[in-house]
Amino acid sequence: MRLIAFMPLLLLLASCASSPVGEPFAGIESHQSDKAIVYVFRKSAFPGSARDTNIFVNGKVELALSNGSYGILRLSGGEYTFGAKNIPGWQYVEGHPIETKFNVKAGGIYYLMFTKQFDVSAGTKEKVFITNSEMEINTGVLEGGLLDSSDVIGFVTEEFAIEQLKKTKKTGLQVDQNKI
Asked: How many CB atoms lie under 10 A from the CB of residue 173?
């Protein structure tokens, strides 16, 4: 009887979660040597799972990611500022963006991770993130509503990225210029 009483609440909570609808990651795509390819992915995590996230490149929204999704950017070589910011919605406010800078080279393949509540302790940094003078791991709180959490954006090693990308689907979200 108790279960029946809680069913409407469970259905409401389940409907709040945003999940990717695209194809599962099928491996690295071939690309042109005159462009860098950047796989941008959002690790699946319960905190913030109902929030979709805009991914910015030099201040312009290029991707919208749901929990457990990825997208691909093709960029000319050069230094870029990559950022993430919650997409405003009925259950939360947009919060503050977090950013990182990185220099990509034409022909290179790079992996940018955005996630919620990731351990960025010293031992984890060396195993997961590319930690050199080219990039700064940025953490911050994208505040706004239930389940605020620390967010992390940074470039990660290929080994870690491929392992995580296998758990994602290609983003099906369209960038909504009205929700930037």
From this structure: 19
Residues 154 and 6: their CA atoms lie apart, in Å, by 39
The model's confidence at residue 13, banded by pLDDT at 50, 70 and 90, is very low
Percent of the chain with pLDDT over 90: 28
Q: Is 69 exposed, middle or buried (0-12, 13-18, 19+ CB in 10 A)?
A: buried
Residue 64's closest CA among 180, 179, 173? 173
CA distances, 3 to each of 11, 14, 78 (Å): 12, 15, 56
Q: Measure the CA angle with vertex 173, ends 101 and 12; round to 5°.
A: 115
> In the predicted model, is pLDDT for residue 57 greater than 80?
yes
Report how far residue 145's alpha carbon sits from residue 107's, in angstroms, rounded to the nearest whole number: 41
Q: Which residues contact 123 (CB under 8 A, 6 or more apart)?
A: none
Looking at the DSSP bridge assignments, the partners of residue 116 are 151
Contacts of 113 (CB under 8 A, 6+ apart): 40, 41, 42, 43, 152, 153, 154, 155, 156, 161, 164
